[in-house]
Amino acid sequence: MQKQYRERVSLKNPAHFCALGFGSGLIPVMPGTFGSLAAIPLLLLTLSLPVWLYIAITAVIAVLGIYVCGKTATDMQVHDHGSIVWDEVAGMFCTFILVPLTPIHLLAGFVLFRIFDILKPWPIFIIDKRLHGGTGIMLDDLLAGFMACISLHAILFIWPF
């Protein structure tokens, strides 16, 4: 992250701490990938939760993300800076809705989410270009997560592993 932007955020600020993926977004290479990896320990904490609670937590993460990502982007004075990775955390949670969290499923979901997040196929790229603020930062990754989820369910239906 360029020094001028780094000076505008602090990991002591709870909104910045979350938006920066607990610091994972500060890794200078592939911050989105490291932000996605930061979601895995949180996902593992949900292993024994009922589905309704997992979905509720996913919704809270998404709504919270609109605020923390928007605030951090405003404080940095840059829309959707690469170090803002809470949207990747939320996208990963969307990816695993109704998917058993086995090691192979985690790997497959992670790869699918990263593909959708990086390539931004239609309609993700439209949202990425047209929406701004916290909603815009979050929505393209939430959609990437839902697309990864649908793809993962289709793969597991055709080829259960």
From TrEMBL:
Q: Which Pfam families match?
A: PgpA
Enumerate the UniProt keywords alphabetically.
Cell inner membrane, Cell membrane, Hydrolase, Lipid degradation, Lipid metabolism, Magnesium, Membrane, Metal-binding, Phospholipid degradation, Phospholipid metabolism, Transmembrane, Transmembrane helix
Any single GO CC term annotated in Swiss-Prot or TrEMBL for this entry: plasma membrane
- Function summary: Lipid phosphatase which dephosphorylates phosphatidylglycerophosphate (PGP) to phosphatidylglycerol (PG).
Q: What EC number(s) is this enzyme filed under? A: 3.1.3.27
The cofactor named in the record is: Mg(2+)
Source domain of life is Bacteria
Q: Does the keyword Lipid metabolism apply?
A: yes
Q: Which residues cross the membrane?
A: 20-45, 51-69, 90-116, 136-159
Entry's InterPro entries? PgpA (IPR026037), PgpA-like_sf (IPR036681), YutG/PgpA (IPR007686)
What is the protein name stated in its UniProt record? Phosphatidylglycerophosphatase A
How does this protein lie in the membrane? Multi-pass membrane protein
Positions of the YutG/PgpA domain: 18-155
Pathway per the UniProt entry: Phospholipid metabolism; phosphatidylglycerol biosynthesis; phosphatidylglycerol from CDP-diacylglycerol: step 2/2
Name the GO terms of the biological process aspect.
phosphatidylglycerol biosynthetic process; phospholipid catabolic process
